[in-house]
Amino acid sequence: MTKIELLDYLHNYLSDGQRHTVRIFGHGGAGKSTFAKELLEILPSDKVNLLETDPYIINGELRQLVSSKDFPNQKVTASMPVSHELNSLKRDITALQMGMDILTIDEPWTPSRILKGSKPILIIEGMSAGFLNEALFDLSIALVTDEETELNRRLERDTKVRGRHADFVLQTHLARRQQYETYYKSYEDSADIIISQINNQIITTFKN
């Protein structure tokens, strides 16, 4: 199935007049934000909320207070559950599902805004969503890609959008990938749909 066909399938799935909560998750640089925005563009703006989960990632300075038993000399990355404010994220998702409005968390690259609980479609995008119980969502989509593509995408995004130095991205890349393989990858098994982007080829797999 091509990306266009998948987006068409999702449009039909989400256009039945019912309330839906969709999570889009995966490792850094997997293409989550791009795919979420593409999905958002084909849905009526008055029917859908997009909750980005990057603001629920704990500050890197605080993450230095803990260490990984498997990689004791590495800084703890977002591939571990301890790096995320999961209770706060679950609280905000549940509030929206119950029809309540929320104010999103302000970030330098994502200004705070109000999400309206009256909108029936809720898209949750980001790494944090992967650690939540799958029962919270009626559809889960995981995105994965190869190590080289991840690095190139992170270099492009983090230097231009997040103001980080290329040297920092390169230095942290190995730790991120190792911790992804050890701690995060297994969560992808809970996805209903997996979008694999390797060597510029996109393969979509429906697990159920």
UniProtKB/TrEMBL annotation:
<keyword id="KW-0808">Transferase</keyword>
<keyword id="KW-0418">Kinase</keyword>
<feature type="domain" description="Phosphoribulokinase/uridine kinase">
    <location>
        <begin position="24"/>
        <end position="201"/>
    </location>
</feature>
<dbReference type="Pfam" id="PF00485">
    <property type="entry name" value="PRK"/>
</dbReference>
<dbReference type="GO" id="GO:0016301">
    <property type="term" value="F:kinase activity"/>
</dbReference>
<dbReference type="InterPro" id="IPR027417">
    <property type="entry name" value="P-loop_NTPase"/>
</dbReference>
<protein>
    <submittedName>
        <fullName>Uridine kinase</fullName>
    </submittedName>
</protein>
<dbReference type="InterPro" id="IPR006083">
    <property type="entry name" value="PRK/URK"/>
</dbReference>
